[in-house]
Amino acid sequence: MANVANALLSLDVDAVRKDFPILHQEVGGKPLIYLDNAASSQKPRAVVEAIANYYYRDHANVHRGVHELARRATEAYEGSRERVARWLNAADAHEIVWTRGTSEALNLLAFSLGQGLREGDEVVVSEMEHHSNLVPWQMAAERTGARLRYVELTADGRLDLDQLASLLGGRTRVVALSHVSNALGTINPVEEIAGLVRERTGAVLILDGAQGAPHLKVDVQALGCDAYAFSGHKMCGPTGMGGLWARRSLLESMPPYQGGGEMIARVFKDHSTWAEVPHKFEAGTPNVAGAVGMAAAVDYLEAVGLDQIHDHEQLLTRRAMELLGQVEGLTILGPADARGRAGVIPFVVDGTTAQDIATILDSEGVAVRAGHHCAQLVVDRYGLTATTRASFYLYNTLEEVERLGQVVDMAARMLRG
Ligand code: PLP
Predict the structure, then answer these.
(1) Domain-embedded: residue 37
(2) Whose CA is nearest to atom 6 of ligand 1?
(3) Cβ of 130 less than 6 Å from ligand 1
(4) Which residues, including other chains, have CB under 8 Å from residue 46's CB and lie 6 or more apart?
(5) Is the pTM of the predicted complex or chain greater than 0.90?
(6) Which of 124, 232, 335, 353 is deepest in the core (most CB within 10 A)?
(7) Over the stretch 121-172, which tens digit does the pLDDT of each residue have?
(8) CB-ligand 1 contact for 128 (6 Å cutoff)
C-alpha cells in the first residue's frame, strides 16, 4: 500500500477536482463518476476562463488587421501556436498546423501526402487504428491505386512487431500508427517502431496522438516520427480544435489541403501561389478562441505534470484491473501488464452485452462507453461486436475505481440472473 499512497501524493487529486466544476454533480441521484475520458475529457476552469476572456477582451479576425484588437487576436493565436510547439518540443512553431482535431490532421496528411502516392506504393496501418487513421488512408489508396498493408495484433492487444518489420520495404511510403490505442489501451513502442521504419524504408512515419498527447509527455523529436496528430478536447482543451505537428521540410513539400483566404501568397486569374507553412494549411478564419484554449490546456497539464498524470493513471489502472479481474466471466482486452497500457480499460462479460453493462453503470452515475469505439477492426480481431470501456484521467480517484468494480460486479450478476 505504500506505493499506492506515494503515487497518489504525486498528484493532489482533490485539488485537481476543484478545478473541474462539471464533476461536482449528481446524475439520477448518484454522484457522477466520469470514466469516459478516452471519448472526451472535461475542462478545467482555467481553460473555460481563457476562452471567455479572449472573447470578452481581445477578439477580432487575425493576421489582416492593423487595429489593436486584430493585433491582440493575432498575438493570442500565434502565441498559442508557440506554446503548443514548446509543449511538444517541436523545433519550430511553424511546424504546428491548427486543425479541428486529430481526424482533420490525419485527413490533411492523407489528402496532401496522398497526392504523391502511386500505384504499387504501400501505406502501412494497423488493425488497432481508430477509423480516423484508417478511412482517410483507404480513401487515398482508392484515389491512387496505393495498397494498404495491416500490422496485425497479438492476442494481448499489442502490435506484432515482427510482422510489422516484414511489411516494411522499398514500396512503403507511409506508416501511420496510433501512439496509444483508444480501443485496447496499449501504449505502442513508437521509438522502436521509428527505428525499424528508418532502417528499412524512406517512409513518412505518422503517429495518431489523440490518446497519447493528453496522457504522456510527448517529445516529437525524441519519438522519431515525422508527424503527430492531436485533439484538444481529449486533453482538457476545447472541442473542434487540435493540431498537427510535422517536420517543416515535410510540410513544405506537401500541397495545400483546402483553398481560400489566409493560405495564399498571391492570387492570379489562372493560378495562385501559397503562403508559407503553416498558413498554407489553414484556409479561412481560424478558431482563434480554440487556439487560446489549447494553450491554456497545455499550461494546465504541465502545471499538474504529465509524468504525475501518467503515474496517477497507472495507479488507477492497476487497481481497476485487479477489481475487474475478480468479476466472474469478465475479460479485459489489451496488455495484461498495466505498465504497457494507458488508463483505458475495455472489457466484456460472458452472458451480457456491452451496452447493457454500460446502461446499468449509467443508472449508478458511472459514465462509460460501450461499442466498437470507432475501431471496428479491433472488435473484429477478437471476435466481438462491442466492449464496455472505462477510461481515466487526472481527476479520477481510487474511490471511483472501487465503485466501478462494485457496480460492474453488480451489473454482471444482475444480467446473468
Ligand atoms: N484517434 C484516436 C486513437 C482516438 O481515440 C480518436 C477519438 O476518439 C481519434 C483519433 C479522433 O479524434 P477526434 O474525434 O478528436 O478527431
Answers:
(1) no
(2) 210
(3) yes
(4) 19, 296, 299, 300
(5) yes
(6) 232
(7) 999 999 999 999 999 999 999 999 999 999 999 999 999 999 999 999 999 9
(8) no
